């Protein structure tokens, strides 16, 4: 990644009509339907955007969508990049830097995750209050990072307090169960062993997934306020562990998705 590459990616999107978006949204596994509600949508497939990585997972379709949602200009990432696909941290977070360069002022992130906290149930939503990075690296650990922002980025409060409060109030008003907790990000793609689930519980994780944290680190590097919600697609009880069913995970995410869409849309209205 170079400043010139970022400029070329941004210029390509601006030429397509991606003008001054206010909010960036990253959609997780099985959570693509929000994109259908964007008015006057303009699409840019990742493989057409200069220097963009390509999505390799079949259920991540791979495009940026620009348009209007609840009266605000948004740019939505439908399909994200993961470490387990063979990308490096700079690739994974490149779209966040491009959205920031386009002009977004806030970032919304969603993901599908497993519930470590057994008080949380399959199909619940969890507002991420903090995270644990277990991916073994950082998207800021490269030469020349200082030309993009402060190298030693502060992570005391990585998720924006005001947006979290607002989202909690919306959930209460709409009668949506919104858990709150700590998200642990692992490499994957294999699911965790019983011993790993026990370890995650001991270190304070409420949910586990394979994404989100690199994007959040870069957004903090860019001083971009973030709100993030996990859709809990399975219950990770080491004492009663069922073999994983990816199709079921995607189905659970799909059923819970309207609640997440409602929360995000109501929050966009209020910003």
Can you describe this structure?
The chain has 271 residues and is an alpha/beta fold. It has one domain: Nucleoside phosphorylase domain (Rossmann fold). The chain is 31% helix and 24% strand. It has six helices and nine strands; from the N terminus they run H-E-E-E-E-H-E-E-H-E-H-E-H-E-H. A five-stranded mixed β-barrel has the order 5-8-7-6-9. Helix 2 crosses helix 5 and helix 3 packs across helix 6. The two termini are 32 Å apart. Belongs to the PNP/MTAP phosphorylase family. One of its GO terms (molecular function) is purine-nucleoside phosphorylase activity.
* Side-by-side strand order of the widest sheet: 5-8-7-6-9
Helix content: 25-40%
- Give the SSE string: HEEEEHEEHEHEHEH
Judging from the principal axes of the Cα atoms, what is the shape? globular
**How would you state the average pLDDT, rounded?**
93
What's the N-to-C terminus distance?
32 Å
- β content, as a range? 15-25%
Q: What name does the CATH topology carry?
A: Rossmann fold
Give the C-alpha Rg: 18 Å
SS element count, helices = 6
Report the count of strand segments.
Answer: 9
Fourth CATH level, the homologous superfamily: Nucleoside phosphorylase domain
By CATH, the architecture is named: 3-Layer(aba) Sandwich
- Main sheet: strands, sense, barrel: 5 strands, mixed, barrel
- Which runs of at least 5 residues are low in confidence (pLDDT < 50)? none
The first-level CATH class name: Alpha Beta
Structural class: alpha/beta
């Amino acid at each position: 990644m170079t400043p010139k590459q970022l400029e070329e990616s941004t210029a390509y999107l601006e030429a397509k009509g991606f003008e001054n978006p206010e909010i960036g949204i990253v959609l997780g596994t099985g959570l693509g339907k929000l994109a259908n509600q964007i008015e006057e949508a303009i699409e840019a497939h990742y493989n057409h955007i200069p220097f963009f990585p390509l999505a390799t997972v079949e259920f991540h379709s791979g495009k940026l969508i620009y348009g209007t949602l609840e009266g605000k200009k948004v740019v939505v990432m439908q399909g994200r990049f993961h470490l387990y696909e063979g990308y490096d941290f700079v690739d994974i977070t490149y779209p966040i830097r491009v959205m920031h360069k386009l002009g977004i002022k806030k970032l919304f992130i969603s993901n599908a995750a497993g519930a470590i906290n057994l008080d949380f149930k399959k199909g619940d939503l969890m507002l991420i209050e903090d995270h644990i990075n277990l991916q073994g690296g950082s998207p800021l650990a490269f030469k020349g990072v200082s030309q993009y922002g402060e190298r030693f980025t502060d992570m005391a409060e990585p998720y924006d307090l005001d947006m979290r409060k607002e989202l909690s109030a919306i959930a209460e008003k709409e009668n949506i169960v919104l858990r709150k907790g700590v998200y642990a990000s692992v490499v994957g793609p294999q699911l965790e062993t019983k011993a790993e689930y026990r370890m995650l519980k001991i270190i304070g994780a409420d949910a586990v997934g394979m994404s989100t944290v690199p994007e959040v680190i870069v957004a903090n590097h860019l001083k971009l306020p973030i709100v993030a919600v996990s859709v809990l697609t399975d219950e990770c009880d080491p004492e009663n562990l069922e073999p994983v069913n990816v199709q079921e995970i995607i189905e659970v995410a799909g059923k819970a998705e309207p609640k997440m869409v409602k929360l995000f849309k109501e929050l966009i209205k209020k910003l």
